[in-house]
Amino acid sequence: MLCITGTPVAVGNADPRPTPQNDPFYTPSEGWSSKAPGTILNSRPVEVASLEPSAQDAEAWQLLYRSTDTDGRPMATVTTVLRPRTGQVKGLISYQVAEDASAPQCAPSFALRQGAPDKYDSSLDLIQIDQMLASGHAISVPDWEGPLGAVFPANQPGYAVLDGVRAAESFAPLGLSGIETPVAVAGYSGGSIGTGWAAVVQPGYAPEIRLVGVAMGGWTVPIAPYLESLDSGPFAGFLPSLLPGMMRADPQLAATFDKYLTPAGQALMAAGDSKCMTPNVAQHAFLRMDDYLTIPFSQLFQQVQASFPDVDFGPVAPTTPLFLYNAVHDEILDIALADQAVTRWCAAGARITYTRDQMSEHVSLAVTATSAVLRWIDDRLAGQAAPNGCSTQTVPSMSLGGA
Hints:
By secondary structure, this protein is an alpha/beta fold. Helix content is 33%, strand content 17%.
């Protein structure tokens, strides 16, 4: 039987540094669970990679901090914090990486470090981080999936993001002004999950954080139809990449899959749990889950429907202004689901600026939208109020100034 309810499988790595499950830095000292959420438990300076051979031209550290899991229990995770080497930082951006994987070595704190074995998975994130630093902001890049590598649990992603902000605000070397610091959160694709949850839970979980704006793109809810739509398609490799962490976070989901996975299916999940998103997607295009189950995948999904409503951000609209953007012709996500979610949130009183891009597809929009997203974030961090109400526009391309 695949061990999907305990620690992720350890794998070898060409990087001489230990992976998170083998690195003592990630293990908090005795008594940590009694600390307040956001308390820094350990810290160390690091170098963050760039797209060049040299490291990112910034000061950077890793902070191990206390957070909270979906069931309200203490959880420890890590954020990588960065600041420009010179000048006063203008504000703090929590940037959620689209990890889209369950394996420990795919966590941003490991994958973004200088010398990590493969920068391909992180290349889009390195572009975003470079641009944010150029705007004069400090950045927190949390391991928002937590130690179980879970992408879709309820609440926990938001807790991890917000406690990473708390840790960053209290870390003197960043030069922030504590709880007076204006904060924005941003994420694309898989990173929109942590970003969206941070927006939803912030009023009740971390009301002292001065959250002024939330930007997320390439996103979708509800999650269940999205996951089911991946089966047998060109991006079916997301399933063995995402499901192991989901099962660790949800024992009921794990029990159902364990009941119906064939030995080949167990091996598929174990292999997916040892690799990051890019090799999983590349290896398993057009994978049919029916070939790895004793019942049809559609029937299994009917049995686990109870696991999914709680992971869709909930019915309450965020109170912080939102900048949302999606590609009309996204080949991975159905934009109709995002359109419907925007309509529901607007009806509930959310303040949303929503842009639909006609020219881009999923991956290219992450790059072409960067300037528009950062302009919007810069305005919020500078104290400019977001527009009231909701607006939706469909533009040829966000890269042409349409946002």
